[in-house]
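Can anyone check this?
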Amino acid sequence: MNTEEAYNKAANILYIHFSEDEVFDKLELIIELDDGFIGRQANRYFNNEVYMPTIDDISFEAEADLQNAASFLKDNLIETTGDKIWGFTFTLYPDGQFSIDYTYDMPEWMQDD
């Protein structure tokens, strides 16, 4: 896998959460990572409103693809920059443009007391 393939997988998984006829200003996939894949949340934004996914259950294969893509991005970032990420937000726009914002700080709920 390479970075472009990982981004494509994230976009495809994001699309799976919503029906084709749902219009959007942006779609957002929030991923949390530790030593493995922890969780995902998808949101659709339209006219300054946030909507939850219409399809929350995705196939085992899609879940595995997302886990592989997230793990690749995490490992690739460590390898290329030395920075560890704890997650990322993948944002997709109707014209196919996207952005990715990495989370470098460990979430409080993951920290030991």
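Reply from J.R.: I decoded it. The chain is about 30% helix and 30% strand.
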